[in-house]
Amino acid sequence: MTGKTLAERILSEKSNTDARAGDYVEAEVDAMLTHDVTGPLTFEVFRGVTDGDGPLADPENTVITIDHHAPADGVQAANNHNAVRDFAAEFGAVQFDVGDGICHQLLVEHGFAEPGDLVVGADSHSTTFGGLGAFGTGVGSTDLGTAMATGDLWFRVPDSVRFEVEGTLPDGVYAKDLILRFIGDVGFDGATYRAAEYGGSAVQDLPIHERLVLSNMAIEMGGKAGLVEPDERTARFLARQTGRTESSFDVSLAPDDDADYAAVHTYDAADLAPQVSKPSNPENAVDVDAVAGTPVDQLFVGTCTNGRYEDVRVVADILDGETLAPGTRMVVVPASKAIYRRMLDTGVFDTFVDAGAIVQSAGCGPCFGTHDGVLGDGDVCLATANRNFPGREGSMDSSVYLASPATVGASALYGEITDPRTVETTRYDDDVVTPAEAQP
């Protein structure tokens, strides 16, 4: 029998079975999350399963955030926020409020996910936690409400698709460019209900904040999960986030050399170029040269994909001492309050304001298409976001292009899509906040 993929290894451990792709297993969940949009239905299901009385199976690892309509953009949103607060208070769940940040970022900052964990969330970008070597996946509110009551959930063990990148990434090419290229190559449904497994020397050289980008957007090719093999860098990152010792994290998880993959895609890092996904699907990825010169009205920096401190810092470095091109506007929405504070402490906030950008409180912002910078008819936006479907960030008649923070920063100088290799860009290792700074 062949060896196991990362997905098979984790689900075997969590189900206490010899799990193989295609098997159905009942697996123990380590952490669960929902938010102000998916929460109300999740709560209804949970109450139904428990006859309204609870308890939560694991309240200390049940996380509820207010991040999508934050601050509230209407009465219904405000009522949903109150429902989150009331439920968390009644059942003892961990709750983050308006301005604390995006659910996926908060779980990373506060140590709710680590290598080998199984993390489920009523949000499709729960694949993010694979950047730490966890099996993170999105589930429906019905599944999550049940898991909150029982502590486990049924899964079909997914096949895995391997993306192998060897070598050193060229200047101006980041993890966002890698994942856009992967999605462009396999298509929006190319990994449907499969685990995307990322490896090779270029991936192992990535800091954790960039590995999280790869895992976050696995869902944009249909992936059930997106996994990066953990290592010493993972342990260092988590130790700094949590205050625990590096040795307390088991980073031995790895796929077997003879693991069976549904497909393997190999790349030479030296051949890769900055990518831009054209409207209106992430799979429409092209080299930046193909769309360079396209005028843009708005630039958006943020989201659970590229709203981390290192991401906004890359943009700020390009804008330092400069101003936005005439006729353009920029909206910056950090992924957490800790990042917002870091921007203030390091002068990044001032750089954006001096350049003419608008900096919002932490949350999902325009990515959800309801507030904080929605697009009007005919508007063209270049965003560090994860999706560019029609109407995703506002008007159905607007257009959204997806790119890396470096490409967005370079484009802000000229008011048109610009190759980041034409300006000086930086590449940061994990410049994480301390646990004290990360408190809500």
UniProtKB/TrEMBL annotation:
Pathway the protein acts in: Amino-acid biosynthesis; L-leucine biosynthesis; L-leucine from 3-methyl-2-oxobutanoate: step 2/4
InterPro entries: Acnase/IPM_dHydase_lsu_aba_1/3, Acoase/IPM_deHydtase_lsu_aba, Aconitase_4Fe-4S_dom, HAcnase/IPMdehydase_lsu_prok, Homoacnase/IPMdehydase_lsu, IPM_dehydratase_rel_enz, IPMI_cat
A Pfam family the protein falls into: Aconitase
Recorded coiled-coil stretches: none
Keyword Hydrolase attributed: no
A molecular function (GO) term: 3-isopropylmalate dehydratase activity
Catalytic activity: (2R,3S)-3-isopropylmalate = (2S)-2-isopropylmalate
EC number(s) per entry: 4.2.1.33
Binding note for cofactor: Binds 1 [4Fe-4S] cluster per subunit.
Keywords: 4Fe-4S, Amino-acid biosynthesis, Branched-chain amino acid biosynthesis, Iron, Iron-sulfur, Leucine biosynthesis, Lyase, Metal-binding
An annotated GO BP: L-leucine biosynthetic process
Cofactor(s) for this UniProt protein: [4Fe-4S] cluster
Residues holding [4Fe-4S] cluster: C304, C364, C367
Xref: SUPFAM superfamilies: Aconitase iron-sulfur domain
Aconitase/3-isopropylmalate dehydratase large subunit alpha/beta/alpha domain boundaries: 11-290, 292-415
Subunit text: Heterodimer of LeuC and LeuD.
HAMAP family the record matches: LeuC_type2
Role, per record: Catalyzes the isomerization between 2-isopropylmalate and 3-isopropylmalate, via the formation of 2-isopropylmaleate.
Family of the protein in this entry: Belongs to the aconitase/IPM isomerase family. LeuC type 2 subfamily.
Protein name: 3-isopropylmalate dehydratase large subunit
Gene this chain is encoded by: leuC
